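lol ok so funny story. i was supposed to be doing the assay writeup but got distracted and ended up predicting the structure for this chain instead. priorities right. anyway since i did it might as well share w the group, maybe its usefull for someone
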Amino acid sequence: MSGAELISRRDGGVLHLQLNRPDKGNALSSTLVNALTEAIEAAARDEHLRLLVLSGAGRHFCTGFDLSNLDIETDDSLLARFVRVELLLQAVHAAPFTTLALAHGHTMGAGADLFAACDERWIVGDAQFAFPGAGFGLVLGTARLAGLVGASHAAEWIEGGKTIDADAACAGGLATRCIDAQALDDECDRLRQRVSRLDPATQRAIHTAIGAGQHSRGPTGDTEDLARLVRSAARPGLRDRIAAYRAAMRKA
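and the output, tada:
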């Protein structure tokens, strides 16, 4: 276990990381982001790892960035936290092994970005997605999302503030599969067999080559993504913009 907010289970070449804040919708607190980052960085150094599975305890996969203590945050503390989230997303996206996210319930904001950063993105049962960050001026994960679903869908979902249901997520390319919860174990076993067929060095080389074809942006793209985030989050008044957005959502 990597701290109370993250449960880590290893089974051979498979590492399962479960977000474990069910009472908070698995929202990404500072400690959870740090634990996830440390676990993923350690996994990247493990030459025997074949598959990383991300899931959420309770009713939801991840309801996004934890804003439960917004009153004690400052613009600077929020900026630092959002930067750490972006670096986490980049680490997941660049992982040298197959990554699988299992979404259910609400998968929102930074949680939806975490889902989108993975190679395999399965909806288990039902899920709803949203990318609300633009509503308070944040640019987070936008280029990665557009790379998955295309510019038109990304613009519609982000600019329009739409909630995306499971059918739309699968049709648009945000999710790679929609599966029944009862079939999850069998489907995970099939994926595990697929990524374990080759020797570890060959599997990593194949994974890297496929990723280079799918994600041609490389380090330069990561730098640009981080720069866009920092510019958007560094605008004065971030905390006030978030508070105003939350108040508007409560009234809607």
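The chain has a mean pLDDT of 93. Residues 75-93 form the longest helix (19 residues).
back to the writeup now i swear
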